[in-house]
Amino acid sequence: MTEVQLRVNGVDVRHEVPDETLLVEFLRETLRLTGTHVGCDTSQCGACTINLDGVSVKSCTVLAAQASGGTVTTVEGLRAGEDAPLHPVQHAFIQCHGLQCGFCTPGMIMSVDFYLRRPPKLDEESICHALEGNICRCTGYVNIIEAVRHAAHDMYPAPAGATMERSQS
Question: Rounded to two decimals, what is the model's pTM?
Answer without folding.
Answer: 0.89
